[in-house]
Amino acid sequence: MKVTVINTGGTFNKRYNPIKGQLEVPADNIALDKIIASCHNVEFEIKNIVSKDSLDMIDSDREAICEAIKSSENDKVIIVHGTDTVHLTSELIKQRRINKKIVFTGAMVPMSIDEVEATMNFSQALGFLSADVEDGTYIAMHGVVVDCSKLVKNRELGQFLIQE
Amino acid sequence: MKVTVINTGGTFNKRYNPIKGQLEVPADNIALDKIIASCHNVEFEIKNIVSKDSLDMIDSDREAICEAIKSSENDKVIIVHGTDTVHLTSELIKQRRINKKIVFTGAMVPMSIDEVEATMNFSQALGFLSADVEDGTYIAMHGVVVDCSKLVKNRELGQFLIQE
Amino acid sequence: MKVTVINTGGTFNKRYNPIKGQLEVPADNIALDKIIASCHNVEFEIKNIVSKDSLDMIDSDREAICEAIKSSENDKVIIVHGTDTVHLTSELIKQRRINKKIVFTGAMVPMSIDEVEATMNFSQALGFLSADVEDGTYIAMHGVVVDCSKLVKNRELGQFLIQE
Amino acid sequence: MKVTVINTGGTFNKRYNPIKGQLEVPADNIALDKIIASCHNVEFEIKNIVSKDSLDMIDSDREAICEAIKSSENDKVIIVHGTDTVHLTSELIKQRRINKKIVFTGAMVPMSIDEVEATMNFSQALGFLSADVEDGTYIAMHGVVVDCSKLVKNRELGQFLIQE
């Protein structure tokens, strides 16, 4: 399987900087690399762009993500994104009607703090793309992969939940 | 989404027993529970049977797994299994032509030692079942989910690889 | 051995709050409990007070720490403290000339992110108190336990280093 | 502070070999290096010898340990040793009346599985050697550092306990 991963930052990637005493969104793929190391049957193209907390994303960032998807080598694309505005970016991408299988994912807790949740969300995207799915814009979080409009962040619970 | 998980043991579940100084296959779901805790959109039925290193499985164990699949509440079934004989059990189940979506998974390193690989394999199965897949017997390991006959354990590398 | 632990907060205790998307200093002893679980030969008295990032500590907090030391059941006392102002608090305590063996410790990275550094610093304090040491105010960080005036935080490196 | 570490193997160092499906005692210092990385104030001499489960140690292994202690650059020596026969080796070393401060340590659970217990035991040895202790043969396990004859492995509990 061939998959393009567009890593845009967000909680998924955050790491603690002991000098500053803060969590930072790094511009590298260290969080991702730990998962990918076990994907022996996937050929990845990885693009690292934006590298922001998604609350700080501006229109030009979303356009950059759109361009990265359009120019990706593969028709299977996973986008690692912050959870706070993933609904905005995914809705924008959906409207562009790109003929690819696009799956947004991310994490509520940084991979550097809890390897389970981040690995789960990303790996669900991979498993979904292993199936013969139609072109579309999806989101993979907390147990399921569905159309990006159907899974919504509940900010009180800190969980993405299917919108009934 | 509703999913039945049949946990049969294997490396995925192994834990260190400090009294005996050995890794053991426990008869509980502690390894699984850590992943499931983040699956807020899945209703699980969990069956814990056999609880063996798969090298120790005998015919009656495989029949028990077959019965557990047939009697599962859901048509989406994930089977956590040891990697050494998963090809035997999955082939047997495939021949039984059960009208369900059955995905075998497992791990090369215990969840208690490396949370990434085990979580990845299990979560790929979940992502695959989120898609509208046909009835069949599949295996989810190391980046992909495919028909159980197509992914084979390379014992020198310790990796499941697509059989060309 | 009998030891009083006064847990005042700091980086050592910080945990990620996925709802707020931030690290917080909790008012509990979860970070400490994980270490103490293996201390089968120590009888602990544990006091949880202040629970602050040490940059936010005020004079009354330091007086509260002083009172907690004076009223501790044991003459062996470990104080878990934030690294940014541990030099101020330890100097104050030293001036009070309390007839106890008082060891300050803490961590540059939260126990919830890196279990090694926090466990190391705390455990060095325990090992030091196992020896027949004189009353005094010490600090246990990054490999050694010395008089609290002799180990200084290098803010560029993020390391406590012996002051030559 | 200058410390010689003699790493002889044991549970402390064990790592999972996914090809063999077993825990092995490696002949490297990976477990140790993770702790030492935070010891910014210690100059280490590290010797890696024997590399065995301590149940497999023979007389010549113990003589090799004795020679390594005698020829160590520093008078502060930590010996990482398996827990099953640490009482035999430490008793032998004690009888040799070497004029150094010798601290045996180890772990009930491999550092590769649980970083807390192994880090705690080793770091207590470091903290103890930071104090002005007399020459002797000590053991650092589970909360305390005492003369090697006074802390005994309880094989039912999997704990080293002070012998009353």
Automatic annotation (TrEMBL), chains A, B, C, D:
Domain L-asparaginase N-terminal per the UniProt entry, residue ranges: 2-154
Domain of life per record: Bacteria
Active-site residues, Swiss-Prot/TrEMBL: 11
Gene3D superfamilies in alphabetical order: L-asparaginase, N-terminal domain (3.40.50.1170)
Pfam name, any one: Asparaginase
GO MF entries: asparaginase activity
Protein name: Asparaginase
Annotated organism of origin: Halarcobacter bivalviorum
